[in-house]
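Field notebook, page 471. I keep forgetting to write these up properly, so this time I am using the form the group agreed on. The chain and the ligand, zinc ion, are recorded exactly as supplied. Prediction of the bound pose follows.
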Amino acid sequence: SAIAVDQAAGGLLKRLAKRGDIEGTSGHTLLVHCEDDLRAPRLLVVGLGDADQLDADEFLAVVRSAATALQQTGATNAAVTLAEAKVKQRDLGDRTRIIVEAFAASRYRFDRLKSKKSKSKNRTLSKIVLPVKEKSSVAAVRRSVREGEAVSSGVQLARDLANLPGNICTPSYLAEQARKLLRSHQLKVSILSEPQMRSLKMGSLLSVTRGSREPAKLIIMEYRGGAKSSPPVVLVGKGLTFDAGGISLKPAGKMDEMKYDMGGAAGVLGTMQTVAELNLPINIIGVLAGCENMPDGKAYRPGDILTTMSGQTVEVLNTDAEGRLVLCDALTYVERFDPELVIDVATLTGAVIVALGNHATGLMSTHNPLAHELMNAGEQSSDRAWRLPVWDEYQDQLESPFADFTNLGGRAAGSITAACFLSRFTKKYNWAHMDIAGTAWRSGKNKGATGRPVPMLAQFLMNRAGLGAED
Ligand code: BES
Ligand code: MN
Ligand code: ZN
Protein backbone atom coordinates (compact mmCIF):
# COMPACT_ATOMS: atom_id res chain seq x y z
CA SER A 1 0.00 0.00 0.00
CA ALA A 2 2.84 2.39 0.77
CA ILE A 3 4.21 1.89 -2.73
CA ALA A 4 0.81 2.49 -4.28
CA VAL A 5 0.28 5.64 -2.23
CA ASP A 6 3.76 6.88 -3.07
CA GLN A 7 3.12 6.43 -6.78
CA ALA A 8 -0.30 8.04 -6.64
CA ALA A 9 1.19 11.03 -4.83
CA GLY A 10 4.08 11.43 -7.29
CA GLY A 11 6.82 10.09 -5.04
CA LEU A 12 5.76 12.03 -1.95
CA LEU A 13 6.76 9.33 0.54
CA LYS A 14 10.20 8.90 -1.01
CA ARG A 15 10.77 12.65 -0.82
CA LEU A 16 9.68 12.74 2.83
CA ALA A 17 12.05 9.87 3.62
CA LYS A 18 14.90 11.60 1.85
CA ARG A 19 14.31 14.80 3.77
CA GLY A 20 14.34 12.89 7.05
CA ASP A 21 10.68 13.45 7.92
CA ILE A 22 10.14 9.70 7.85
CA GLU A 23 12.72 7.49 9.51
CA GLY A 24 10.52 4.53 10.31
CA THR A 25 11.11 4.74 14.06
CA SER A 26 8.72 2.37 15.79
CA GLY A 27 5.49 4.12 16.74
CA HIS A 28 6.49 7.46 15.18
CA THR A 29 3.67 9.10 13.25
CA LEU A 30 3.65 11.83 10.64
CA LEU A 31 0.45 13.43 9.45
CA VAL A 32 0.64 14.64 5.87
CA HIS A 33 -2.03 16.89 4.38
CA CYS A 34 -2.43 15.83 0.79
CA GLU A 35 -4.86 18.33 -0.72
CA ASP A 36 -5.66 16.92 -4.18
CA ASP A 37 -2.72 14.59 -4.81
CA LEU A 38 -4.50 11.65 -3.27
CA ARG A 39 -8.12 10.67 -2.97
CA ALA A 40 -7.67 11.03 0.78
CA PRO A 41 -7.16 14.50 2.26
CA ARG A 42 -4.79 13.20 4.92
CA LEU A 43 -2.18 10.53 5.12
CA LEU A 44 -0.82 9.20 8.39
CA VAL A 45 2.60 7.62 8.00
CA VAL A 46 3.40 5.20 10.82
CA GLY A 47 6.85 3.87 11.70
CA LEU A 48 7.18 0.12 12.27
CA GLY A 49 10.80 0.01 13.42
CA ASP A 50 12.97 -2.87 12.22
CA ALA A 51 10.68 -4.79 9.88
CA ASP A 52 12.23 -8.19 10.69
CA GLN A 53 12.08 -7.67 14.43
CA LEU A 54 8.45 -6.65 14.85
CA ASP A 55 6.76 -8.73 17.54
CA ALA A 56 3.19 -8.60 18.88
CA ASP A 57 4.04 -6.24 21.76
CA GLU A 58 5.73 -3.72 19.51
CA PHE A 59 3.05 -4.02 16.85
CA LEU A 60 0.39 -3.33 19.45
CA ALA A 61 2.29 -0.24 20.61
CA VAL A 62 2.58 0.94 17.00
CA VAL A 63 -1.13 0.43 16.34
CA ARG A 64 -2.02 2.25 19.55
CA SER A 65 0.07 5.26 18.64
CA ALA A 66 -1.43 5.30 15.14
CA ALA A 67 -4.93 5.16 16.63
CA THR A 68 -4.17 7.98 19.07
CA ALA A 69 -2.67 10.13 16.32
CA LEU A 70 -5.70 9.51 14.09
CA GLN A 71 -8.12 10.42 16.87
CA GLN A 72 -6.38 13.77 17.17
CA THR A 73 -6.99 14.65 13.52
CA GLY A 74 -10.43 15.68 12.36
CA ALA A 75 -10.81 12.46 10.36
CA THR A 76 -14.07 10.58 10.75
CA ASN A 77 -13.02 7.57 8.73
CA ALA A 78 -9.77 5.97 7.71
CA ALA A 79 -8.37 3.10 5.69
CA VAL A 80 -5.86 1.26 7.87
CA THR A 81 -3.20 -0.84 6.16
CA LEU A 82 -1.12 -1.73 9.23
CA ALA A 83 -2.21 -5.38 8.99
CA GLU A 84 0.15 -5.66 6.02
CA ALA A 85 3.12 -5.57 8.41
CA LYS A 86 4.86 -8.86 9.14
CA VAL A 87 4.60 -9.62 12.84
CA LYS A 88 6.33 -12.51 14.58
CA GLN A 89 3.89 -15.34 15.35
CA ARG A 90 0.85 -13.33 14.31
CA ASP A 91 -1.01 -14.10 11.09
CA LEU A 92 -3.26 -11.73 9.16
CA GLY A 93 -6.28 -12.62 11.29
CA ASP A 94 -4.37 -11.97 14.52
CA ARG A 95 -3.07 -8.65 13.22
CA THR A 96 -6.57 -7.67 12.20
CA ARG A 97 -7.87 -8.38 15.68
CA ILE A 98 -5.09 -6.34 17.25
CA ILE A 99 -6.04 -3.39 15.04
CA VAL A 100 -9.77 -3.68 15.70
CA GLU A 101 -9.28 -3.96 19.46
CA ALA A 102 -6.71 -1.16 19.71
CA PHE A 103 -8.81 1.23 17.65
CA ALA A 104 -11.92 0.42 19.67
CA ALA A 105 -9.99 1.00 22.91
CA SER A 106 -8.63 4.33 21.68
CA ARG A 107 -12.17 5.64 21.30
CA TYR A 108 -13.09 4.80 24.87
CA ARG A 109 -14.12 7.70 27.12
CA PHE A 110 -15.85 7.61 30.46
CA ASP A 111 -17.59 10.98 30.63
CA ARG A 112 -21.17 9.98 31.28
CA LEU A 113 -21.02 11.47 34.78
CA LYS A 114 -19.72 14.84 33.66
CA SER A 115 -22.46 17.45 33.32
CA LYS A 116 -20.85 18.84 30.14
CA LYS A 117 -19.75 16.38 27.49
CA SER A 118 -16.53 17.07 25.60
CA LYS A 119 -17.17 19.18 22.49
CA SER A 120 -15.33 17.43 19.68
CA LYS A 121 -17.86 14.58 19.84
CA ASN A 122 -19.23 15.02 16.32
CA ARG A 123 -15.77 14.69 14.78
CA THR A 124 -14.51 11.39 16.10
CA LEU A 125 -13.16 8.55 14.08
CA SER A 126 -16.22 6.39 13.59
CA LYS A 127 -15.30 4.06 10.77
CA ILE A 128 -12.20 2.21 9.70
CA VAL A 129 -11.75 0.26 6.50
CA LEU A 130 -9.33 -2.65 6.36
CA PRO A 131 -8.22 -3.20 2.76
CA VAL A 132 -7.49 -6.87 1.98
CA LYS A 133 -5.32 -7.77 -0.98
CA GLU A 134 -6.01 -11.47 -1.45
CA LYS A 135 -9.60 -12.49 -2.05
CA SER A 136 -8.88 -15.76 -0.26
CA SER A 137 -8.13 -13.91 2.98
CA VAL A 138 -11.36 -11.93 3.12
CA ALA A 139 -13.32 -14.54 5.08
CA ALA A 140 -10.60 -14.91 7.72
CA VAL A 141 -10.28 -11.14 8.09
CA ARG A 142 -14.06 -10.82 8.42
CA ARG A 143 -14.07 -13.39 11.18
CA SER A 144 -11.25 -11.63 12.98
CA VAL A 145 -13.09 -8.32 12.76
CA ARG A 146 -16.13 -9.98 14.30
CA GLU A 147 -14.03 -11.49 17.10
CA GLY A 148 -12.22 -8.21 17.68
CA GLU A 149 -15.51 -6.33 17.89
CA ALA A 150 -16.98 -8.86 20.32
CA VAL A 151 -13.90 -8.75 22.55
CA SER A 152 -13.95 -4.94 22.43
CA SER A 153 -17.58 -4.76 23.43
CA GLY A 154 -16.90 -7.05 26.41
CA VAL A 155 -13.89 -4.94 27.37
CA GLN A 156 -15.93 -1.77 27.11
CA LEU A 157 -18.72 -3.15 29.29
CA ALA A 158 -16.17 -4.21 31.91
CA ARG A 159 -14.51 -0.80 31.84
CA ASP A 160 -17.81 1.07 32.16
CA LEU A 161 -18.96 -1.02 35.09
CA ALA A 162 -15.65 -0.80 36.90
CA ASN A 163 -15.33 2.95 36.37
CA LEU A 164 -18.72 3.59 37.94
CA PRO A 165 -18.42 4.68 41.57
CA GLY A 166 -19.66 2.71 44.55
CA ASN A 167 -22.70 4.91 45.08
CA ILE A 168 -23.99 3.97 41.62
CA CYS A 169 -22.53 0.54 40.95
CA THR A 170 -23.87 -1.39 43.93
CA PRO A 171 -24.44 -5.15 44.09
CA SER A 172 -28.04 -4.49 43.00
CA TYR A 173 -26.76 -2.47 40.03
CA LEU A 174 -24.54 -5.39 39.03
CA ALA A 175 -27.62 -7.62 39.18
CA GLU A 176 -29.52 -5.20 36.93
CA GLN A 177 -26.69 -5.21 34.40
CA ALA A 178 -26.73 -8.99 34.33
CA ARG A 179 -30.48 -8.92 33.69
CA LYS A 180 -29.93 -6.39 30.93
CA LEU A 181 -27.48 -8.73 29.23
CA LEU A 182 -30.05 -11.50 29.51
CA ARG A 183 -32.56 -9.40 27.60
CA SER A 184 -30.23 -8.83 24.64
CA HIS A 185 -28.78 -12.35 24.50
CA GLN A 186 -29.68 -15.97 25.16
CA LEU A 187 -28.77 -16.17 28.82
CA LYS A 188 -30.43 -17.41 31.95
CA VAL A 189 -29.92 -15.17 34.95
CA SER A 190 -30.76 -15.93 38.56
CA ILE A 191 -30.02 -13.71 41.50
CA LEU A 192 -29.68 -14.98 45.04
CA SER A 193 -30.76 -12.59 47.80
CA GLU A 194 -29.37 -12.58 51.34
CA PRO A 195 -32.22 -14.74 52.75
CA GLN A 196 -31.49 -17.30 50.02
CA MET A 197 -27.80 -17.19 50.90
CA ARG A 198 -28.77 -17.72 54.51
CA SER A 199 -30.64 -20.91 53.68
CA LEU A 200 -27.59 -22.07 51.73
CA LYS A 201 -25.50 -21.38 54.88
CA MET A 202 -23.13 -18.93 53.18
CA GLY A 203 -21.91 -17.75 56.57
CA SER A 204 -18.71 -16.28 55.22
CA LEU A 205 -20.13 -14.06 52.47
CA LEU A 206 -22.94 -12.97 54.78
CA SER A 207 -20.44 -11.90 57.46
CA VAL A 208 -18.64 -9.60 55.05
CA THR A 209 -21.84 -7.93 53.88
CA ARG A 210 -23.23 -7.45 57.40
CA GLY A 211 -21.65 -4.01 57.87
CA SER A 212 -23.15 -2.69 54.64
CA ARG A 213 -26.53 -1.09 53.95
CA GLU A 214 -26.41 -2.46 50.41
CA PRO A 215 -27.84 -5.96 50.12
CA ALA A 216 -25.39 -8.53 48.73
CA LYS A 217 -26.32 -10.30 45.51
CA LEU A 218 -24.98 -13.55 44.14
CA ILE A 219 -25.60 -13.30 40.43
CA ILE A 220 -25.61 -16.41 38.26
CA MET A 221 -25.59 -16.14 34.49
CA GLU A 222 -25.89 -19.28 32.42
CA TYR A 223 -24.91 -19.32 28.77
CA ARG A 224 -25.69 -22.62 27.09
CA GLY A 225 -24.10 -22.72 23.64
CA GLY A 226 -22.90 -26.33 23.84
CA ALA A 227 -24.46 -29.75 24.13
CA LYS A 228 -26.79 -30.24 27.09
CA SER A 229 -24.58 -32.95 28.51
CA SER A 230 -21.29 -31.07 28.25
CA PRO A 231 -20.08 -29.71 31.60
CA PRO A 232 -19.78 -25.93 31.83
CA VAL A 233 -16.78 -23.69 32.26
CA VAL A 234 -17.51 -21.59 35.34
CA LEU A 235 -16.17 -18.07 35.86
CA VAL A 236 -16.47 -16.52 39.32
CA GLY A 237 -15.86 -12.79 39.77
CA LYS A 238 -15.13 -10.91 42.99
CA GLY A 239 -17.73 -8.13 43.05
CA LEU A 240 -16.85 -5.88 45.99
CA THR A 241 -18.55 -2.72 44.76
CA PHE A 242 -16.62 -0.91 47.48
CA ASP A 243 -14.00 -2.20 49.86
CA ALA A 244 -13.38 0.18 52.76
CA GLY A 245 -11.64 -2.63 54.62
CA GLY A 246 -14.39 -2.99 57.23
CA ILE A 247 -13.33 -2.65 60.89
CA SER A 248 -9.72 -3.15 59.70
CA LEU A 249 -10.32 0.14 57.89
CA LYS A 250 -8.06 1.07 55.00
CA PRO A 251 -6.05 4.33 55.08
CA ALA A 252 -7.72 7.28 53.32
CA GLY A 253 -5.18 7.73 50.53
CA LYS A 254 -6.36 6.20 47.26
CA MET A 255 -9.30 4.56 49.01
CA ASP A 256 -11.48 5.79 46.13
CA GLU A 257 -9.78 3.15 44.00
CA MET A 258 -11.55 0.46 45.98
CA LYS A 259 -14.57 1.12 43.77
CA TYR A 260 -12.56 -1.07 41.37
CA ASP A 261 -12.78 -3.99 43.77
CA MET A 262 -15.54 -5.40 41.60
CA GLY A 263 -13.16 -5.60 38.62
CA GLY A 264 -13.35 -9.39 38.66
CA ALA A 265 -17.14 -9.34 38.42
CA ALA A 266 -16.94 -6.70 35.66
CA GLY A 267 -14.48 -8.92 33.78
CA VAL A 268 -16.75 -11.94 34.06
CA LEU A 269 -19.79 -9.95 32.91
CA GLY A 270 -17.83 -8.48 30.00
CA THR A 271 -16.63 -11.94 29.01
CA MET A 272 -20.19 -13.30 29.10
CA GLN A 273 -21.21 -10.54 26.69
CA THR A 274 -18.34 -11.37 24.31
CA VAL A 275 -19.16 -15.06 24.43
CA ALA A 276 -22.86 -14.43 23.77
CA GLU A 277 -22.08 -12.11 20.85
CA LEU A 278 -19.85 -14.77 19.30
CA ASN A 279 -22.37 -17.55 19.97
CA LEU A 280 -19.56 -19.80 21.15
CA PRO A 281 -20.62 -23.45 21.05
CA ILE A 282 -19.80 -24.22 24.68
CA ASN A 283 -21.53 -23.95 28.04
CA ILE A 284 -20.36 -21.16 30.31
CA ILE A 285 -21.62 -20.03 33.68
CA GLY A 286 -20.65 -16.65 35.09
CA VAL A 287 -21.07 -15.96 38.79
CA LEU A 288 -20.72 -12.47 40.24
CA ALA A 289 -20.28 -12.26 44.00
CA GLY A 290 -21.71 -8.77 44.63
CA CYS A 291 -21.07 -7.34 48.07
CA GLU A 292 -19.71 -4.30 49.93
CA ASN A 293 -17.18 -4.19 52.80
CA MET A 294 -17.89 -1.39 55.27
CA PRO A 295 -17.20 -0.50 58.91
CA ASP A 296 -20.36 -0.39 61.03
CA GLY A 297 -21.74 -1.34 64.44
CA LYS A 298 -23.04 -4.50 62.84
CA ALA A 299 -19.89 -5.23 60.87
CA TYR A 300 -17.93 -8.44 61.39
CA ARG A 301 -14.83 -8.09 63.58
CA PRO A 302 -11.26 -9.32 63.78
CA GLY A 303 -11.36 -12.47 65.89
CA ASP A 304 -14.80 -13.54 64.68
CA ILE A 305 -15.08 -17.16 63.66
CA LEU A 306 -17.27 -17.85 60.64
CA THR A 307 -18.73 -21.05 59.28
CA THR A 308 -18.45 -21.17 55.51
CA MET A 309 -20.93 -22.90 53.23
CA SER A 310 -18.45 -25.78 52.97
CA GLY A 311 -18.67 -26.30 56.74
CA GLN A 312 -15.05 -25.26 57.28
CA THR A 313 -14.54 -22.57 59.94
CA VAL A 314 -12.43 -19.45 59.52
CA GLU A 315 -10.93 -17.13 62.12
CA VAL A 316 -11.01 -13.56 60.80
CA LEU A 317 -7.71 -11.85 61.57
CA ASN A 318 -8.24 -8.92 59.23
CA THR A 319 -11.62 -7.81 57.89
CA ASP A 320 -9.84 -6.30 54.89
CA ALA A 321 -8.99 -9.78 53.63
CA GLU A 322 -12.67 -10.02 52.63
CA GLY A 323 -12.34 -11.07 48.99
CA ARG A 324 -11.43 -14.64 49.86
CA LEU A 325 -14.32 -14.76 52.36
CA VAL A 326 -16.80 -13.77 49.67
CA LEU A 327 -15.30 -15.98 46.99
CA CYS A 328 -15.07 -19.13 49.13
CA ASP A 329 -18.84 -19.46 49.44
CA ALA A 330 -19.32 -18.74 45.74
CA LEU A 331 -16.72 -21.42 44.95
CA THR A 332 -18.60 -23.93 47.09
CA TYR A 333 -21.88 -22.93 45.51
CA VAL A 334 -20.67 -23.65 41.95
CA GLU A 335 -19.98 -27.31 42.80
CA ARG A 336 -23.63 -27.89 41.90
CA PHE A 337 -22.91 -27.24 38.23
CA ASP A 338 -20.45 -30.18 37.97
CA PRO A 339 -18.05 -27.84 36.21
CA GLU A 340 -15.49 -28.81 33.60
CA LEU A 341 -13.29 -26.23 35.33
CA VAL A 342 -13.62 -23.11 37.47
CA ILE A 343 -11.70 -19.85 37.12
CA ASP A 344 -12.09 -17.14 39.71
CA VAL A 345 -11.12 -13.57 38.85
CA ALA A 346 -10.43 -11.15 41.67
CA THR A 347 -8.73 -7.92 42.71
CA LEU A 348 -7.59 -9.98 45.65
CA THR A 349 -4.26 -8.73 47.00
CA GLY A 350 -2.07 -5.65 46.96
CA ALA A 351 0.79 -8.16 47.19
CA VAL A 352 0.35 -9.21 43.56
CA ILE A 353 1.38 -5.67 42.57
CA VAL A 354 4.54 -6.05 44.64
CA ALA A 355 5.26 -9.33 42.86
CA LEU A 356 4.32 -8.54 39.25
CA GLY A 357 3.67 -4.80 39.00
CA ASN A 358 0.90 -3.63 36.71
CA HIS A 359 1.77 -5.67 33.65
CA ALA A 360 0.89 -9.26 34.40
CA THR A 361 -2.15 -10.76 36.07
CA GLY A 362 -1.19 -13.21 38.80
CA LEU A 363 -2.20 -16.74 37.86
CA MET A 364 -2.39 -19.50 40.42
CA SER A 365 -3.62 -22.98 39.79
CA THR A 366 -3.41 -26.48 41.17
CA HIS A 367 -4.01 -27.87 37.68
CA ASN A 368 -1.03 -27.53 35.33
CA PRO A 369 -2.82 -28.03 31.98
CA LEU A 370 -5.35 -25.33 32.85
CA ALA A 371 -2.59 -22.95 33.94
CA HIS A 372 -0.78 -23.49 30.64
CA GLU A 373 -3.95 -22.97 28.63
CA LEU A 374 -4.59 -19.66 30.40
CA MET A 375 -1.00 -18.47 30.03
CA ASN A 376 -1.18 -19.20 26.29
CA ALA A 377 -4.49 -17.38 25.93
CA GLY A 378 -2.92 -14.40 27.69
CA GLU A 379 0.06 -14.44 25.36
CA GLN A 380 -2.18 -14.71 22.28
CA SER A 381 -4.39 -11.82 23.34
CA SER A 382 -1.61 -9.53 24.67
CA ASP A 383 -3.35 -9.70 28.06
CA ARG A 384 -0.77 -11.68 29.90
CA ALA A 385 -0.65 -13.57 33.17
CA TRP A 386 2.32 -14.99 35.05
CA ARG A 387 2.13 -17.94 37.32
CA LEU A 388 2.85 -18.10 41.04
CA PRO A 389 2.97 -21.43 42.90
CA VAL A 390 0.29 -22.79 45.23
CA TRP A 391 2.51 -25.31 46.98
CA ASP A 392 1.48 -27.03 50.20
CA GLU A 393 4.41 -25.43 52.05
CA TYR A 394 2.55 -22.13 52.01
CA GLN A 395 -0.62 -23.58 53.55
CA ASP A 396 0.94 -23.52 57.05
CA GLN A 397 0.78 -19.74 57.08
CA LEU A 398 -3.01 -20.02 57.48
CA GLU A 399 -2.93 -22.03 60.71
CA SER A 400 -5.32 -20.92 63.45
CA PRO A 401 -5.41 -21.93 67.12
CA PHE A 402 -9.21 -21.59 67.23
CA ALA A 403 -10.72 -22.35 63.85
CA ASP A 404 -9.86 -24.61 60.90
CA PHE A 405 -7.71 -21.80 59.49
CA THR A 406 -7.44 -18.00 59.34
CA ASN A 407 -8.11 -15.56 56.53
CA LEU A 408 -4.64 -14.02 56.85
CA GLY A 409 -1.32 -15.47 55.71
CA GLY A 410 1.07 -12.79 56.95
CA ARG A 411 3.40 -10.54 55.00
CA ALA A 412 5.28 -13.18 53.04
CA ALA A 413 3.78 -14.31 49.72
CA GLY A 414 0.44 -12.59 50.32
CA SER A 415 -1.01 -13.45 46.91
CA ILE A 416 -0.06 -17.09 47.23
CA THR A 417 -1.52 -17.54 50.72
CA ALA A 418 -4.74 -15.92 49.46
CA ALA A 419 -4.81 -18.57 46.72
CA CYS A 420 -4.05 -21.24 49.35
CA PHE A 421 -7.12 -20.09 51.23
CA LEU A 422 -9.28 -20.42 48.10
CA SER A 423 -7.74 -23.80 47.24
CA ARG A 424 -9.42 -25.24 50.34
CA PHE A 425 -12.78 -24.67 48.67
CA THR A 426 -11.97 -25.96 45.19
CA LYS A 427 -11.14 -29.62 45.76
CA LYS A 428 -14.06 -30.94 43.71
CA TYR A 429 -12.97 -29.51 40.34
CA ASN A 430 -10.06 -28.19 38.27
CA TRP A 431 -9.45 -24.63 39.31
CA ALA A 432 -7.44 -21.53 38.50
CA HIS A 433 -7.32 -18.19 40.26
CA MET A 434 -6.47 -14.89 38.60
CA ASP A 435 -5.39 -12.00 40.80
CA ILE A 436 -6.06 -8.85 38.77
CA ALA A 437 -5.33 -6.27 41.50
CA GLY A 438 -2.45 -4.90 39.40
CA THR A 439 -4.07 -5.08 35.98
CA ALA A 440 -7.79 -4.25 36.26
CA TRP A 441 -7.24 -0.50 36.47
CA ARG A 442 -4.62 2.20 36.13
CA SER A 443 -3.92 4.76 38.87
CA GLY A 444 -2.60 8.29 38.56
CA LYS A 445 -3.25 10.79 35.80
CA ASN A 446 -4.84 8.28 33.46
CA LYS A 447 -6.87 6.60 36.17
CA GLY A 448 -9.38 4.19 34.75
CA ALA A 449 -10.45 0.60 34.30
CA THR A 450 -8.60 -1.46 31.68
CA GLY A 451 -11.18 -4.15 30.96
CA ARG A 452 -8.60 -6.81 31.75
CA PRO A 453 -8.77 -9.82 31.82
CA VAL A 454 -11.64 -9.92 29.30
CA PRO A 455 -9.32 -10.40 26.28
CA MET A 456 -7.53 -13.29 27.94
CA LEU A 457 -10.69 -15.04 29.16
CA ALA A 458 -12.41 -14.54 25.82
CA GLN A 459 -9.37 -15.99 24.03
CA PHE A 460 -9.30 -18.94 26.40
CA LEU A 461 -12.95 -19.65 25.68
CA MET A 462 -12.57 -19.14 21.93
CA ASN A 463 -9.70 -21.63 21.97
CA ARG A 464 -11.85 -24.06 23.92
CA ALA A 465 -14.68 -23.61 21.46
CA GLY A 466 -12.25 -24.50 18.66
CA LEU A 467 -12.28 -21.04 17.14
CA GLY A 468 -9.25 -18.94 16.45
CA ALA A 469 -7.10 -22.05 16.46
CA GLU A 470 -7.37 -22.99 12.81
CA ASP A 471 -6.15 -19.82 11.10
N1 BES B 1 -9.26 -5.38 47.43
C1 BES B 1 -8.10 -5.53 48.21
C2 BES B 1 -6.85 -5.80 47.40
C3 BES B 1 -6.19 -4.60 46.80
C4 BES B 1 -5.52 -3.70 47.59
C5 BES B 1 -6.20 -4.43 45.45
C6 BES B 1 -4.90 -2.62 47.00
C7 BES B 1 -5.55 -3.36 44.87
C8 BES B 1 -4.91 -2.45 45.64
C9 BES B 1 -8.28 -6.70 49.18
O1 BES B 1 -9.57 -6.90 49.64
C10 BES B 1 -7.43 -6.40 50.35
O2 BES B 1 -7.71 -5.49 51.05
N2 BES B 1 -6.41 -7.21 50.53
C11 BES B 1 -5.48 -7.03 51.58
C12 BES B 1 -5.22 -8.40 52.15
C13 BES B 1 -4.46 -8.37 53.43
C14 BES B 1 -5.31 -7.76 54.54
C15 BES B 1 -4.10 -9.79 53.77
C16 BES B 1 -4.22 -6.40 51.02
O3 BES B 1 -3.83 -6.74 49.91
O4 BES B 1 -3.65 -5.55 51.70
MN1 MN C 1 -9.97 -5.73 51.35
ZN1 ZN D 1 -11.07 -6.25 48.46
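OBSERVATIONS:
- Residues 243, 261, 318, 320-323, 347-351, 408, 414, 437 surround BES (ligand 1) (CB under 6 Å).
- The chain is about 35% helix and 15% strand.
FOLLOW-UP: compare against the apo run.
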